[in-house]
């Protein structure tokens, strides 16, 4: 019995393994596949209702399937005609990987286990939701000149039922704000359409809802097979996008939508005044678009305004790109947003309605989720979006909204520091020292006592077809963890594909490119580019380029004097970057051989390795073998022969880039040299973009006067003029100075 994986998935048993690594190591228990579930699809909206099947185990038709999530929420499953079991995902108030257990005996025992990935509702593929056709009409329905039929469409194959019901659901939060009794609830309201054909489309003429429902102004539609009763929970369903329920609001809204919305806006403003000020604890915005796009550990593209997707910025006219702070603020779980114009300058709400607006509720939610204000997407809708409808879209009170959600400028923003490693390993430290270290083994790139952050790199030998046989090593894997976060490893597999492991298990990004994990977020871009964003604001970017990994670590300023490893001591001083484990310091003018000894000193110890050893060769070479292979002696200075035909081409390609020249000579490949040159240029550009920028902060126009200029960074000048009939005292123009203060006296008219 001890050798069965029933109830034991993820564990190493006496004689065999129930861990994901057992496939490649060939030590799986005989029933591993039966009990440790592979599911497809593996992800779906946190709203639930998604049908997924268990791929690797078959059940007989009489099994009574029950699926249990987080050991507390159960849904009914079924066995299909092909013998595959299916589960229905539940409504959850959180995102991320959710433990799943399955029972085939009606819920007596749950021996089968796996995980389900719960996803933010707006990050789910469009095909999985029903579409509100002509969305603007839905948004403004019932306001002047917005009436007639509304229609929705859906993928009919998504529900295997001839007839469906369409239901209306509303979202509310009850209890006292920021108290223990604050709770979130999705509530079934009423049936909009009963037993209609599952044709994939439906049109209707909206009528005001009964009075008891018309106070619900934010919600969703749900389509379910008509065999289920209205509002039955966790049944197969298709949800719409979350939207303002303008179309079902009462007669008072339809009679005079402006007055109705103005009253709501005023009520919201009064409520806001009683709530704590979240603005003082959110991170300030980067000063420039270049900084915002470079600080990838703390800011991520706001999908509502993306320069790479043509800058369609509906809510931010005049902006070309916006970013959101990745982490919610510590106490109030608030979010930051920062928008920039075509010159790369920040747009502030004080100057323009296109300015960025911070959020009382972070759009992505924040761990541990489950309770307001941390519910992904929906808390944000309630505090920051529906109020925007009241004040800005359905009435002309946008100034009220902007006053409560005014942009932060960038006076206290401090850019992070960056360190990188790439090619036939070349290292650039946080302080800007560069060196080449060609050890073979596993090494600490950076570790910090501040947050127990650890980033480790493994180098492996790389052979090139026309190489000289000179030993070439390159980064082949990078593993990382902060405090007790999930462990992430990015590595080249043997067929040179980029693999990502989450707690020793290979994960794929086929369904989701963004994962909410424990202690970090993980994003995979299309071009083999993986970014990990830890809760401290530190970021790790890994790219696969030409058979080598390139890794960049970004650390916020609070890590100053709290780092060690191959990336040095981050303190703006290169002199102590060669610091050994025992704190002795070697001169920056050390020889390549001495640098080799420094590198070897930072070999990882077995007990603290974050890597996964799931093949015989990894076990033999890195787990049982030495962490630093002392018998491997690299070429320290490659020989450059003027008669060598490659040298001429190398000079043209590399110009004066020493790393590019080094790699062409050791690998005999111009392609590798070019990749190295690209990585080196990327790092230089990143450091350039992250240079601190001085801001003097926003300046308003004088009462009874005007101002000209909206750039508040070093060297910018703002000019002032008085309205007719007023005279001028103070400065006519003020310039942002190196001290971070404005020149001249305040202007009055």
UniProtKB/TrEMBL annotation:
Please list the residue ranges annotated as the AMOP domain: 257-405
Question: Per the record, a Pfam family?
Answer: AMOP
Name the cystine pairs.
Answer: 722-749
Q: Which UniProt keywords apply?
A: Disulfide bond, Membrane, Sushi, Transmembrane, Transmembrane helix
The record places domain SMB at: 1-40
Q: Where is the VWFD domain?
A: 417-610
Q: Where found in the cell? A: Membrane
**Annotated CDD domains:** CCP
Report the main location listed first in the record.
Answer: membrane
Q: Which is one Gene Ontology cellular component term of this protein?
A: membrane
Residues forming the Sushi domain are 694-749
UniProt-recorded name of the protein: SUSD2 protein
Species this protein is from: Jacana jacana (Wattled jacana)
The organism's taxonomy opens as: Eukaryota, Metazoa, Chordata, Craniata, Vertebrata
């Amino acid at each position: 019995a001890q050798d069965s994986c029933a109830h034991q998935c993820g564990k190493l048993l006496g004689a065999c393994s129930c861990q994901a690594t057992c496939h490649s190591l060939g030590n799986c228990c005989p029933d591993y596949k039966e009990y440790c579930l592979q599911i497809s699809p593996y992800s779906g909206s946190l709203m639930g209702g998604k049908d997924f099947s268990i791929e690797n185990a078959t059940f007989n038709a009489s099994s009574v399937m029950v699926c249990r999530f987080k050991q507390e929420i159960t849904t009914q499953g079924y066995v299909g005609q092909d013998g595959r079991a299916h589960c229905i995902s539940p409504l959850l108030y959180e995102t991320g990987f959710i433990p799943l257990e399955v029972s085939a005996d009606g819920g007596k025992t749950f021996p089968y286990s796996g995980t389900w990935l719960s996803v933010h509702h707006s990050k789910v593929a469009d095909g999985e939701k029903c579409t509100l056709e002509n969305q603007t009409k839905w948004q403004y329905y019932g306001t002047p000149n917005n009436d007639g039929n509304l229609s929705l469409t859906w993928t009919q194959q998504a529900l295997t039922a001839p007839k469906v019901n369409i239901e209306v659901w509303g979202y509310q939060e009850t209890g006292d704000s920021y108290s223990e009794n604050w709770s979130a609830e999705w509530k079934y309201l009423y049936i909009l359409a009963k037993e209609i054909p599952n044709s994939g489309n439906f049109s209707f003429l909206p009528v005001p809802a009964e009075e008891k429902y018309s106070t619900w102004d934010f919600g969703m539609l749900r389509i379910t097979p008509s065999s289920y009763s209205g509002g039955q929970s966790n049944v197969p369903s298709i949800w719409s996008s979350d939207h303002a329920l303008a179309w079902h609001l009462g007669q008072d809204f339809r009679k005079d939508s402006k007055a109705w919305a103005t009253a709501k806006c005023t009520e919201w403003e009064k409520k806001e005044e009683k709530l704590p000020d979240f603005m003082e604890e959110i991170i300030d915005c980067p000063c420039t678009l270049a900084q915002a796009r470079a600080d990838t550990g703390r800011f991520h593209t706001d999908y509502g305004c993306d320069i790479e997707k043509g800058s369609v910025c509906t809510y931010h006219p005049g902006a070309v790109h916006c970013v959101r702070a990745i982490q919610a603020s510590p106490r109030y779980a608030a979010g930051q947003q920062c928008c920039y114009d075509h010159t790369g300058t920040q747009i502030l709400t004080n100057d323009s309605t296109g300015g960025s607006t911070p959020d009382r509720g972070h759009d992505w939610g924040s761990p541990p989720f489950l309770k307001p204000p941390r519910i992904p997407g929906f808390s944000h809708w309630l505090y920051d979006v529906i109020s925007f409808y009241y004040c800005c879209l359905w009435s002309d009170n946008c100034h009220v909204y902007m006053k409560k959600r005014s942009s932060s400028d960038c006076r206290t923003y401090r850019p992070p520091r960056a360190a990188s490693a790439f090619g036939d390993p070349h290292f650039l430290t946080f302080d800007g020292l560069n060196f080449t270290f060609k050890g073979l083994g596993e090494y600490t790139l950076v570790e910090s006592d501040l947050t127990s952050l650890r980033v480790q790199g493994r180098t492996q030998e790389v052979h090139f077809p026309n190489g000289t046989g000179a030993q070439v090593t390159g980064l082949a894997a990078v593993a990382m963890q902060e405090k007790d976060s999930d462990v992430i490893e990015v590595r080249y597999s043997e067929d040179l594909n980029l693999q990502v492991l989450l707690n020793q298990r290979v994960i794929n990004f086929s369904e989701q490119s963004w994962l909410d994990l424990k202690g970090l977020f993980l994003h995979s871009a299309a071009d083999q580019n993986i970014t990990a964003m830890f809760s401290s604001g530190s970021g790790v970017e890994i790219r696969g380029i030409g058979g080598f990994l390139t890794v960049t670590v970004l650390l916020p300023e609070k890590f100053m004097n709290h780092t060690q490893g191959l990336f040095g001591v981050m303190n703006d001083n290169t002199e102590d970057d060669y610091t050994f484990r025992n704190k002795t310091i070697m001169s920056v003018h050390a020889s390549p051989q001495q640098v080799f000894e420094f590198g070897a000193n930072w070999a990882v110890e077995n007990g603290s390795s974050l890597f996964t050893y799931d093949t015989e060769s990894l076990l033999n070479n890195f787990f049982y073998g030495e962490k630093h292979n002392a018998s491997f002696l690299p070429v320290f200075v490659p020989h450059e022969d003027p008669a060598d035909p490659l040298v001429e081409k190398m000079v043209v390609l590399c110009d004066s880039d020493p790393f590019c020249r080094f790699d062409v000579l050791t690998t005999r490949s111009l392609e590798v040299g070019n990749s190295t040159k690209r990585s080196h240029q990327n790092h230089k550009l990143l450091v350039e973009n992250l240079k601190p920028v001085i801001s003097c902060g926003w300046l308003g126009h004088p009462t009874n006067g005007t101002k000209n200029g909206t750039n508040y960074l070093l060297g910018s000048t703002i000019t002032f003029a008085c309205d007719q009939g007023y005279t001028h005292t103070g400065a006519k123009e003020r310039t942002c100075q190196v001290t971070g203060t404005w020149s001249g006296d305040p202007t009055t008219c």
